[in-house]
Design brief:
This protein has 179 residues and is mainly beta. It has a single domain, classed as Immunoglobulin-like, CATH 2.60.40. The protein has 3 helices and 11 strands; from the N terminus they run H-E-E-E-E-H-E-H-E-E-E-E-E-E. Strands 1, 2, 3, 4, 7 and 8 form a 6-stranded antiparallel β-sheet that branches. Strands 5, 6, 9, 10 and 11 form a 5-stranded antiparallel β-sheet that branches. Strand 9 and strand 10 form a beta hairpin.
Length: 179
């Protein structure tokens, strides 16, 4: 019986020593390659490092068109450029079908030259919505806006088409600012 007990102990010990070895295949997961979105528009050149931000609150014209900021800088005496920073989710293709309207109301009315300007007490113009890239952001550039003052009561910014008029009847109004 002693031999019988020793044999049981021996087989138990041998059975415990044998480890069940399983081979587990690790599944290789490919991480998606991060593709940086690049916009295929010309780079806006000549903008100084320091610009005057006259609007920084963002404005939604439609679910697909939004501006984030508007900045200005002086290029010559009585000549200013504007940079309109577009939201990254703006549908640029849709925007390019529109025209940008920009109307400024100067505090000093003596700078108004034409009869139309004097009647409306403003200087306004339409601009093409040509897209540029500045600091990896899409922008619209308004160049060579000539006005003999830099102090304004109001600025109106809107997008329009000849067929449909002002986009969603929305006009951004910026009050009391200096270029």
């Amino acid at each position: 019986m002693r031999i019988f007990v020793l044999m049981i102990l021996f087989f138990t010990a041998v059975a415990c020593k044998e480890e069940k070895k399983e081979t587990v295949e690790l599944e290789t997961v490919e991480t998606p390659e991060v593709v940086e979105e690049t916009l295929d528009f010309p780079k806006l050149e000549g903008v100084p490092q320091s610009v005057n931000y006259i609007f920084e609150d963002g404005y939604l014209y439609s679910p697909t068109i939004q501006i984030d900021e508007i900045a200005s800088y002086q290029t010559e005496d009585n000549t200013f450029n504007f940079v309109i920073y577009l939201n990254k989710d703006t549908d640029l293709e849709e925007l390019q079908k529109l025209t940008l309207g920009l109307i400024l109301y100067p505090k000093d009315l003596s700078v108004l030259k034409t009869a139309k300007q004097k009647k409306t007490k403003s200087i306004g113009k339409g601009y093409s919505t040509e897209i540029y890239i500045l600091d990896n952001s899409p922008v619209i550039s308004v160049k060579d806006f000539k006005v003999a003052t830099n102090d304004f009561n109001l600025m109106k910014v809107y997008f329009y088409s000849k067929e449909a008029g002002v986009l969603n009847d929305k006009t951004l109004r910026i009050s009391n600012f200096t270029l």
